[in-house]
Amino acid sequence: DKGNYRHFMAKEIHEQPEVIGHTLSRYIDLGARKVDVPGAAAIDFTNLNRILISACGTAYYAGLVAKYWFEKYARLPVEIDVASEFRYRETPIGKNEFALFISQSGETADTLASLRYCKENGAKIGAVVNVPESTIARESDVVFQTIAGPEIGVASTKAFTCQLAVLAALAIHAGRSRGFVNEDQETELVEALGAIPGLAVQALKSEIKIETLSQPLSRVSDALYLGRGTNFPLAMEGALKLKELSYIHAEGYAAGELKHGPIALIDENMPVFVIAPHDGIYEKTVSNMQEVAARGGRIILITDERGAAESGDVAQDVVIMPDVHEIVAPIIYALPVQMISYHTAVFMGTDVDQPRNLAKSVTVE
Ligand code: M6R
């Protein structure tokens, strides 16, 4: 049931404050301001040498964000691959390794094959899945369920942000177990996560602005998305969403890579989306934007009030997000990114919930 929405995707985008809230309530104890991850005790994070993550598509981008978190908050090395590569590359699996699989459906063929490979090679298996009775869930030692509810739109939206919520809680848990997150830091991080539902409501208010700026986008043939840190995977997610929904060719790049090639593509016909909260590396992104502006590129900047004030007016359009703690930025900034591709597709008249050539669950190779 689409309720009052035109498409399932719109409904699912707007459900996010609620379903992220449901998901978080399973993994954090807001009263005590502590993470409390059911099943996590089965993994000996203290003695872990490495986490291996495999997933496909949007779930892979959630894993890429989690890599930054596990490494930063838990000082735990993470190796991540798209599952279609991981399953055939015969990577050696050593002692004290934990393999983590991320999948909305829990049925993706390549992800499942990667899981079975790790299992046969003796790794402990965990899965972040949305469908608890799925094959990936059944074959895992520990399941971290996302409580996103059924996702009908082929383009993943709410499953992605719920995956990030679970992964953030797990990274904090790992950090605490390994002694890299102390009590005060845990309190700060858990409070930050607890603020997500309210911040997501605020982020959704940018929809009117996004609808207006999306109209001219429906006439472009290519677009670039740039981000740094945990917003780099989000840039790739934005490009994937635009491709899937509006069939516009798009690429996501780490902003620092701009000079190493993609800058050659910039001209006045090229929209460049910059996903950049005002954080410790914001200044670097401002210089990237100046480089784009100097070549006539059309910048659409997604940032907060401070970021907008310090952007030096290089952007043609600015989408303002609420101020957020850095751990929640990729979750909150996912919402405008989703809405941009949604509204562009609506203007183009493509089949938003069932884009051409795509299946909701890829159960064959
Ligand atoms: O069910 P899964 O999470 O395993 O699916 C993985 C990908 O097929 C999926 O995220 C795909 O990339 C979506 N169409 C993205 O919007």
UniProtKB/TrEMBL annotation:
Subcellular localization: Cytoplasm
Enzyme class: transferase
Coiled coil regions in record: none
Catalytic residues of the enzyme: 360 (for fru-6p isomerization activity)
Catalyzed reaction equations: D-fructose 6-phosphate + L-glutamine = D-glucosamine 6-phosphate + L-glutamate
Primary subcellular site in the record, as a coarse category: cytoplasm
EC number: 2.6.1.16
Superkingdom of this protein's organism: Bacteria
GO molecular function, a single term: glutamine-fructose-6-phosphate transaminase (isomerizing) activity
Key words, A-Z: Aminotransferase, Cytoplasm, Glutamine amidotransferase, Repeat, Transferase
Residues annotated as domain SIS: 41-180, 213-355
Described function: Catalyzes the first step in hexosamine metabolism, converting fructose-6P into glucosamine-6P using glutamine as a nitrogen source.
Assembly description: Homodimer.
Protein name: Glutamine--fructose-6-phosphate aminotransferase [isomerizing]
Organism field: Roseibium polysiphoniae
Gene name in the database record: glmS
Residues of the full protein shown: 244 to 608 of 608
